[in-house]
Amino acid sequence: MLDWYTNPGHAPLVLAQELGLFKKHDLDVELIAPADPSVPPKLAAAERVDIAISYQPQLHLQIDQGLPLVRIGTLVATPLNVVVVRADSDIQSIADLKGKRVGYSVGGVEEVLLSTMLQHSGLTLDDITLTNVNFSLTPSLLTRKVDAVTGAFRNFELAQMAQEGVKGRAFYIEEEGVPTYDELIFVANSDSYERKQAQYAGFLAAVGEATAWIINHPDQGWEMFRDSDPALDTELNKEAWYATLPRFALRPAALDAGRYRDFEDFLFERGMIKKRQSLSHLAVDVNAP
Predict the structure, then answer these.
(1) Phi and psi of 153, rounded to 5°?
(2) 117 lies in a domain?
(3) What pTM did the predictor assign?
(4) CA–CA separation, 267 vs 12, rounded Å?
(5) Number of domains in the chain
(6) Which of 261, 84, 82 is nearest to 172 (CA)?
(7) Are 118 and 261 in a shared domain?
(8) CB of 110 within 8 A of CB of 151?
(9) How confident is the model over 223-274, as pLDDT tens digits?
């Protein structure tokens, strides 16, 4: 199950389907878009779907809350989350957010990430005014309802603003004191992992082959992605396609153990999780013996 409606962030999955790579690995894969982005991990935990796309920061919280989940692979291997401002504003750095209105859509982890970025520049959340913009990030900036937004995706919001004739400026969270992490990951039920490990390995092999093909043939890949569903043929998706390509994990099954330990520590130190989990409870390498 996808994390949201089909978009260029799902390119390796769509292309693996279009190129017959899942079938090559003896897999019958159905890509399902959820009506609610909070649902996929819950369905994976309940084994109502075999694999769900989720986000590394959320995985740490979900496991802390007792959901039987484990990361089995990576789709997008860098953070996408950014703080965005209008380029024509007087905000040249995170420090310039002092006294400004910052729009957000979801609290929790987003608030912790923003707080860390502010602390990195000598500020706190008390120095800004947080405004819930209900997922209306770009419109809120365009209409100057807020001075900045957090939780924007670097491969979408900047292109969306440019289409409206407004240049944006992004501040990258991994450059502002937040440990780097995998933005989009594949999660599965941890209790049934060993039983399905071979299938998961085949699935990730197909995704890796699709990713390599896309990197080698980006223009042809866009055309194939676009033609897979008429609804995908938009200028914004085309811009996002090329912006997302460098972010895909070239080895989806590979596990960066330090990345998961570091982010677990980061959340624990900020009171977002009750206890530290061992690496094996968070993430696995499906190709490990």
Answers:
(1) -100, 125
(2) yes
(3) 0.96
(4) 30
(5) 2
(6) 82
(7) no
(8) yes
(9) 999 999 999 999 999 999 999 999 999 999 999 999 999 999 999 999 999 9
Sheet holding 81-86, edge to edge: 129-132, 101-104, 148-153, 81-86, 168-172
| Rounded Cα distance, 74 and 185, in Å | 4
Query: Is 288 a member of any domain?
Result: no
In this structure, the answer to whether residues 226 and 204 fall within a common structural domain is yes
If residue 86 lies in a helix (H) or strand (E), which one and from where to where? Answer: strand 81-86
pLDDT exceeding 90 applies to what percent of the chain?
A: 97
**Residues 229, 88: one domain?**
no
Last residue of a domain, one of 175, 197, 230: 175
Q: Closest Cα partner for 131 from 105, 166, 161?
A: 105
Contacts 24+ apart (CB under 8 A), 54-58: 54/3, 54/184, 54/185, 54/186, 54/187, 55/3, 55/183, 55/184, 55/185, 56/181, 56/182, 56/183, 56/185, 56/259, 56/260, 56/263, 57/109, 57/113, 57/181, 57/263, 57/267, 58/109
Q: Report d(CA 115, CA 109) in Å as an integer.
A: 10
Length of the chain in terms of residues written? 289
Q: 140 with 151: CB under 8 angstroms?
A: no
User: Which pairing describes strands 101-104 and 148-153: parallel, antiparallel, or unpaired?
Assistant: parallel
